[in-house]
Amino acid sequence: MQIKGLHKNIYRLANYCLQQELLSEQEKLRYKQLGDWEMLKKHRVPDSEIARITGISRVLVHIE
After folding, report:
1. Domain count, the chain
2. Residue 14 belongs to a domain
3. How far apart are CA 13 and CA 19, in angstroms?
């Protein structure tokens, strides 16, 4: 008997791991954006200008 592929659970596990790596990269970007937002807010930059600079809206900041 020849094995022509791996068990389907191996492929599922690999896909899950890849998704977790991408999620952590997205989380890093999100925390950086929120940190930038807070820093600019301390310098009294208007919310509309901060949203343009960071790329996130005021609504998303106030949800968390």
Report:
1. 1
2. no
3. 10
35 lies in a domain?
yes
Which regions of the chain are under pLDDT 50? Answer: none
Residues in the chain: 64
Tens of pLDDT along 34-46? 888 889 989 998 8
HSE-up (13 A, CA, CB side) for residue 63: 5
The answer to whether residue 15 sits within a structural domain is no
What global pTM score does this model have?
0.54
Tell me 4's DSSP state.
-
Residue whose entry in the numeric block shows the structure tokens 């940190």: 35
Q: Is residue 23 part of a domain?
A: no
Burial label for 9, CB within 10 Å (0-12, 13-18, 19+), is exposed
